[in-house]
TrEMBL record:
Organism ancestry: Bacteria, Bacillati, Actinomycetota, Actinomycetes, Kitasatosporales
Enzyme nomenclature, EC number: 1.14.13.59
Record's protein name: L-lysine N6-monooxygenase MbtG
UniProt xrefs under Pfam families: Lys_Orn_oxgnase
Sequence similarity: Belongs to the lysine N(6)-hydroxylase/L-ornithine N(5)-oxygenase family.
Keywords, ordered alphabetically: FAD, Flavoprotein, Monooxygenase, NADP, Oxidoreductase
Molecular function (Gene Ontology), one example: L-lysine 6-monooxygenase (NADPH) activity
Species: Streptomyces resistomycificus
């Protein structure tokens, strides 16, 4: 579909990753239930087609959540968009069950997302980067809407659409260490596969990976397997890789109910979520991957063929690009330094959470903030604004400070996008009732 200039929608979604895909499905299922007066929606995605962290679709990397935490099941267990329906449609349901494993590969989950997306193409426009959200100019056709500016990434043209509600879901922001600039041989993990293939792998004789999270472990393993001729250096600040806690009690922090405990909790309660359970997700690695890396290193010791090198308690002090190589200055915590020349270095140094400030631009001054400078957000993920701004601005992501650890993860997207859909539908009903009441009053005035 192609949203036209000046069209007006009940909902405009910015970004079409899993979060807004789940929202689009939720709105579609609402329509299927009521049949009349559909909620009109348009989603804009800057990529040319659907893609979920494509540059990290490494062979055999597995999901970090159960297949039941798909786009819909926790909101609507009988949805036709579930992972189980996908398996059934592929003729693979029995085979999947025979595996007796809750965790599909990321590649299979990506196929599932693409399968679900293929039923939603009527609401999404690709190659479309949203560049601004604005209040409408005085005298505009839709004064109670915000105006969304969309740039076509293929020809640079711009169009504007109006929205009663905006749902910002632009995802995580790759994070590089201060002073390190990305380049031909200096990559962030979010661009890994594209850069790897561009670099002509056979020529990569020495590579380094920085970080001790899941991305770093997966890329280190990938390099070691795919480049049998290469020296592989793993550089990380900790003593060793730490395990991701996915045991049942800890896993409860990803339950929908935990959002309420976090949202309505006091400061010490929220702080305890992070203090005790950060290791469920951040800077940690799946048990199987840790063991695989250790086994590789052990086998190399046994066979005197060492080419996987761990530089623990070490940080990268500087990187200088030098033609097709990068010179990396490493510094151990005890201050000892050492230089490394590599053909490529990957910074698997994580992501910053989504921050809508830049997109909001001038509109941000209508959005209230708390004492620590974070946006205030209602339980149903709506930015709290001053009364002048009557449109709903919702966030999918970037609400770690109000809604907790699941804010940027898949675990809760089915429930969260359902809550946002409900809020939008309720808001529209209230708007329609208010308009009808105003009409009645106007008619009564005229006839009096
Ligand atoms: P996501 O980042 O997926 O999508 C945002 C979209 O917005 C992108 O497609 C982007 O192009 C688009 N966009 C950005 N700015 C735009 C603009 N201005 N205009 C238009 N479009 C714009 N979590 C989990 O629970 N289980 C898991 O297994 C994993 N696995 C995983 C693997 C890897 C490699 C990473 C990096 C992360 C995960 N995660 C995860 C966490 C991850 O955040 C989560 O899986 C989803 O990507 C969240 O979906 P969203 O739609 O919110 O963001
Ligand atoms: P991450 O968990 O935030 O890990 C980043 C790592 O980089 C940490 O070890 C961190 O160390 C280190 N680091 C940060 N700055 C550094 C610096 N300047 N020098 C050296 N090291 C530095 O990031 P991630 O591994 O990319 O994971 C992000 C999200 O994606 C997580 O939710 C993860 O589960 C998910 N993911 C999932 C899959 C999958 O589904 N298979 C694959 C990859 C990622 P400190 O902790 O000391 O800061």
């Amino acid at each position: 579909m192609s949203a036209r200039n000046n069209d007006t929608y009940d909902v405009v979604g910015i970004g079409f990753g899993p979060s807004n895909l789940s929202l689009a499905i939720s709105l579609e299922e609402h329509h299927a239930n009521v049949l009349t007066n559909p909620v009109t929606s348009a989603f804009f995605e800057r990529q040319p087609q659907f893609g979920w962290h494509r540059n990290m679709l490494l062979p055999s990397a597995t999901m970090q959540i159960s297949f039941l935490k798909d786009l819909v099941t926790f909101r609507n267990p009988v949805s036709r968009f579930s992972f189980v329906s996908f398996l059934h449609a592929q003729g693979r349901l029995a085979q999947f069950v025979n595996r007796k494993d809750f965790f599909p590969t990321r590649q299979e989950f990506h196929q599932y997302l693409e399968w679900a997306e293929s039923s939603m193409t009527n609401v999404v426009t690709y190659n479309s980067s949203v560049t601004a959200i604005r209040r409408p100019p005085p005298g505009a056709e839709a004064p109670d809407c915000v105006q969304i500016e969309v740039r076509d990434t293929t020809d640079g043209s711009t169009r504007r659409v109006n929205a009663h509600n905006v749902v910002i879901s632009t995802g995580l922001e790759p994070r590089m260490p201060d002073g390190v600039v990305r380049g031909e041989r200096v990559w962030h993990s979010s661009e890994f596969l594209a850069q790897y293939h561009r670099a002509q792998p056979a020529q990569l004789k020495s590579v380094a990976v920085v970080g001790a999270g899941q991305s770093a472990a997966e890329i280190t393993k990938f390099f070691h397997t795919q480049l049998p001729h290469a020296q592989v250096h793993a550089v990380f600040p900790s003593y060793g890789y730490s395990i991701a806690d996915d045991t049942p009690f800890a896993n409860q922090i990803f339950d929908a109910a935990a959002v309420d405990d976090y949202y309505y909790g006091d400061d010490p309660t929220r702080e305890a979520f992070w203090r005790y359970h950060r290791n469920t997700n951040y800077g940690v690695v799946d048990n199987a991957d840790i063991r695989a890396l250790y086994q590789i290193a052990y086998d190399e010791d046994v066979s005197h063929t060492k080419r996987l090198h761990f530089h623990n308690q070490t940080k990268v002090k500087s990187v200088t690009a030098d033609g097709h190589t990068a010179r990396v200055l490493l510094e151990r915590l005890d201050g000892a330094q050492r230089e490394l020349g590599v053909d490529a270095i990957v910074f698997a140094t994580g992501y910053a959470t989504m921050d809508p400030t830049h997109l909001l631009g001038d509109l941000d001054r209508y959005c209230l903030r708390d004492e620590s400078g974070h946006h205030r957000v209602t339980r149903d993920y709506r930015l709290v604004t001053t009364p002048e701004l009557t449109c709903g601005i919702y966030l999918q992501g970037g609400t770690e400070h109000t809604h907790g650890l699941t804010s940027s993860l898949l675990s809760n997207i089915a429930v969260r996008s359902g809550e946002i859909a409900d809020a939008v539908i309720k808001g529209r009903t209230e708007r329609e009732l208010a308009a009808a009441a105003a009409q009645v009053l106007q008619t009564a005035d005229k006839s009096a």
